[in-house]
Write a structure and sequence with these properties.
Elements (H helix, E strand, L loop, with lengths): L38 H15 L1 H18 L1 H11 L2 E6 L10 H9 L33 E5 L3 H10 L4 E7 L5 E7 L6 H21 L4 H7 L20 H38 L2 H6 L4 H41 L15 H26 L8 H22 L6 H6 L6 H11 L5 H28 L9 H9 L3
Parallel strand pairs: 1-2, 1-3
Antiparallel strand pairs: 3-4
Helix pairs in contact: 1-10, 2-10, 3-10, 4-6, 8-10, 8-11, 8-12, 8-14, 10-11, 10-15, 11-12, 11-14, 11-15, 12-14, 14-15, 15-16
Amino acid sequence: MIRLRRTASAPASAPGSAPAPRSRPDAVPTRSGDRLFPNGAIVAQREYTQRVRSRTFVLGTIVLVALAFGAALIPVFTRVLDQQFSNKVAVYAAAAALPFDPLPLITTSLNGAGGGAGVAASPRPSASTGPAASPSTGVPANPEFTVTSVPDLEQARTDLRAGSYDGLIVISRTTSGDVRFEYLTDAAPDGRSAFYVRQAATAIALEDRLDRLSIPPTAQAELFAPVVFDVLPKDPNAPPKQSANDNISRSLTSNILVILIFITVITYGTWVATSVAEEKSSRVMELMLSAATPRQMLLGKVVGNGAAGLTQYFGILGAALVGIVLQGPLTALFVRGPTVEGASLAGLTPGVLAVFLVFFILAFALYSLVYAAAGSLVSRQEDVQQILTPLTFLSIAGYMAAIFGASDPTSTWVILLSYFPFTSPYVMLVRVIDGTVEPWEPLLAVVILVATIGLMLVVASRIYSAGVLLYGQRPTMRGLIAAARVRR
């Protein structure tokens, strides 16, 4: 049961008579002042308590927390599976009598030398500088291909047919003395593994020819030394471009944060609208409006449902953070070989997280007010989704603007949408992560958002006060405009 506080207007006492009794919580309400508290807080507490105590909320939160924790551990599961299902390749090179060991070149080519499979091998490979490479071999700590040398060709063919190996590389020589390669495998001749083996074969043949030409190793090192190659902007005064990996990382960061805002607006905004429609269909709303103003009811519902949503949301984020923290220890426990820390997402700085939190809360407040006003216009819960469809499209428009705007955050239309209140939480966040904004631009967007929320509170409360008493009638645009213009 909810008991809202309203102060009744006391009649004037006659001279000499006893003072009028003090007002009680259930006294006839008055509308003077229309203060948001304490009634707004009472409604918010009721909404929050009812939402978090429901079985759907509890079970849903448990499932989402478990999914978030599991998703954070996906990199660990992937590395364990890669370790269990690595491809085994055997190499027979005794007949070629090579003056060097071909295994490092083949291993480097198949596993990419820390840069991912597909990196071309080069003669005399050195330790890779990639972050995921073993300092002694120049290959990733958990290679996709395991390469071993075999002394007996016939036994290797037998083991290959028995499934002990996924491929067999046979190195021999032609009649002219050049090296010859045969790759025995069930994979396609133009597949990925065959392509990488061909790269290694080219490097081995090249080094063998250099040795047969009596070119010393020092000269070979000079011959294959990396060239000096710089990429410069067309305008010498323009700032240097970000690397491709940095761009991909920033794009991934902005997509994740924008999706978080989008899901919050859709999911918890629907909670607010459904709560309003539920009380309206049960006629409880009429009793509550006799003790509280529409503005108090509206604010209480937005704050209460928003607090419940944020409780669930922060629980999910907390589980994800715990999973991320446990990635290193679990990888060291279950994955063989040296482990390395993964690189953090570019652009994910404390400043960006602070901006995200501000836009996260303001976006929810703005859309929740609109969702609550929309929910007051329907008489049945079954009609909630129908009236929320235009609002969903509005949220999708902001989300899509951010996704497409990330490719060119300095274009005029992206800059304009970064200040429009219903799209700025998405688009401005993308521009902040990209680093193409001045410090005052996010502040201006926040000021515009706060002013819009204040205006929307007035407009939504007027629509709310008319809509909660509207039964059996289809809301029209003319009626909504009239309701928004009338002060109650």
